[in-house]
Amino acid sequence: MNRMLQLRLLSLSNPQVPLTSLFQSLFGTHGRSSTRVTEILQDRVGVSSSRKSLYGFRTFCTQEDLSTKKCVPCNSKDLQAMTEEAANELIPKVSGWNLVNEDGKLKLNRSWRVKSFTKGLEFFQVVADVAEAEGHHPDLHLVGWNNVKIEIWTHSVGGLTENDFILAAKITMGLTCNTY
Ligand SMILES: C[C@H](O)[C@H](O)[C@H]1CNC2=NC(N)=NC(=O)C2=N1
């Protein structure tokens, strides 16, 4: 069994044991500091910094989990913008993406430098395919021929919804196996 899965199961069954201790028992520290171990956990396992206990269990939601979810229609009547606190809870689960507040409007953004203008357009095509499949779309910027920036927010509510984090996770997964 995958050791990361073992770690999750061990943590669920031993919520009182610090996760870093479980991680070290499974993976060893290999000289890593406990700070580094915590960083790995937050990056790989999506462990929230504050212990969100549901019956004492840590809630796990990794980037992969978000990328398996489906965006809901943005014109859903009960869709509303999330608070900055909620957005700060989710941002660790979309590694590489930034949470920004532009004049009170929360957005996600991420920038890349691509090898050429045409690589930038190929990059956008991958992103467009993901967005079309989700019915949820980012704002795309290609500036100075090789600087790419993607901004994601839910226009219908003027802020962030879970759709935006799902799209960010799917875009990241969609781009992972390509180089631009
Ligand atoms: C009907 C539906 O609301 C619109 O077609 C979709 C399209 N894609 C969208 N994308 C984003 N980011 N925000 C929206 O509000 C939105 N609305």
From TrEMBL:
InterPro entries referenced in this protein's UniProt entry, alphabetically: PCD_sf (IPR036428), Pterin_deHydtase (IPR001533)
EC number: 4.2.1.96
Keyword vocabulary terms for this entry: Lyase
Domain of life: Eukaryota
Cellular component terms (Gene Ontology): mitochondrion
GO molecular function, one term: 4-alpha-hydroxytetrahydrobiopterin dehydratase activity
UniProt KW Lyase keyword: yes
Any one GO BP annotation for this protein: tetrahydrobiopterin biosynthetic process
Catalytic activity entry: (4aS,6R)-4a-hydroxy-L-erythro-5,6,7,8-tetrahydrobiopterin = (6R)-L-erythro-6,7-dihydrobiopterin + H2O
Family, per entry: Belongs to the pterin-4-alpha-carbinolamine dehydratase family.
PANTHER family linked to this entry: PTERIN-4-ALPHA-CARBINOLAMINE DEHYDRATASE
Protein name per the record: 4a-hydroxytetrahydrobiopterin dehydratase
Species lineage: Eukaryota, Viridiplantae, Streptophyta, Embryophyta, Tracheophyta
